[in-house]
């Protein structure tokens, strides 16, 4: 293409011949910024001037500049022009190898767990005859393992007996078993208005009806629970009193006691999901300790060791021991003994406590980064690897999720956790996936920039 010698603005070195022309222009602009040909604060040519120089339509250049602003590489100022902006993160960086940064999936930050587990499994292979681990075992798990794990989960507020504790393939398996114990297809289950997406999946697969219960700043609202239970006839409650997912809210002891009292009054079976209590230095009193005869208590090692380490526990009331054993026989026969052997060795060596301390430290570090960028977000005494970000009034959760995806960042969409059509006015953001604090900072700054924009302007570019 011919170049006008009087044209003094930026020109792309070349434009890709394939694909939409506006994207070719944006990609060329992004490449020149990455190569140092353009610097932070450089002014770009006016839309009409660049269009004439490159033999493009003004609409194509305008669309390219909109896309560039959405990627965070330029900023437009009415009456002043369009300027290169030092990006927190480019779309190419966010996408990686055509992959988006996933802040929708709750994973722990990378730490020492891989090295610890590698050494531990190597130790088992070197020092122990594997034959005892490879044979058939009781459906609830090796008895000695259950004794040690039950003791490690017990404290002054809750004593777990090995006979009532069953080892499962992660918390998801434990929740599925618990539901099968207390509900049948067509039954209604009381849940938070915004609840754990994995539980929604189990309920859908089991043909159960979820009844949303309104929430306050501690989770399930007691008056709403009473009303919804009586309206629906539901006799099962699923709840996450500690660091509720997705909202990260935690019930105080008074609220827990009230929920336990209502469970007795309303004759509710309670499925208590306590997979995040390890973030607390001292575990909050479980509802299982306040209503032991009607509570099914779920924990997980997958949540702080690694997602692929599929080991959870289900503690049931005495009356359900035999039926739980039968359901484990039917669904999994028993959990891979190598996993429970690993946990027992971690407990006995003290390394489990070391890993827990590391997880708490990582969560606190990442939460502080989040608060630096979003100082008005709700404060958590003991943070996890996810947060609940309230949105400005002009933003819906769906709009924000779409805008973030357009910048290469996935956040938890409302449909994942909402029970019904209610817009939460907030989104869950998971902080564990970014490789370090610097990358997390960059990504969160992009989200902050999105919220500083108007929804219509951000969503206008496909």
From TrEMBL:
Looking up InterPro entries in the UniProt record yields: Aminotransferase_I/II_large (IPR004839), HTH_trans_reg/aminotransferase (IPR051446), PyrdxlP-dep_Trfase (IPR015424), PyrdxlP-dep_Trfase_major (IPR015421), PyrdxlP-dep_Trfase_small (IPR015422), Tscrpt_reg_HTH_GntR (IPR000524), WH-like_DNA-bd_sf (IPR036388), WH_DNA-bd_sf (IPR036390)
Residue ranges constituting the HTH gntR-type domain according to the UniProt record: 19-87
The terms under GO molecular function for this entry are:
transaminase activity
Residue ranges spanning the membrane: these are none
SMART domains named in the record = HTH_GNTR
Q: Which UniProt keywords apply?
A: Aminotransferase, DNA-binding, Pyridoxal phosphate, Transcription, Transcription regulation, Transferase
Gene3D superfamilies (alphabetical) = Aspartate Aminotransferase, domain 1 (3.90.1150.10), Type I PLP-dependent aspartate aminotransferase-like (Major domain) (3.40.640.10), Winged helix-like DNA-binding domain superfamily/Winged helix DNA-binding domain (1.10.10.10)
Presence of keyword Transcription: yes
Q: Answer yes or no on keyword Secreted.
A: no
Q: Show the PROSITE patterns listed in the entry.
A: HTH_GNTR
Q: Family per UniProt? A: In the C-terminal section; belongs to the class-I pyridoxal-phosphate-dependent aminotransferase family.
Protein name in UniProt: PLP-dependent aminotransferase family protein
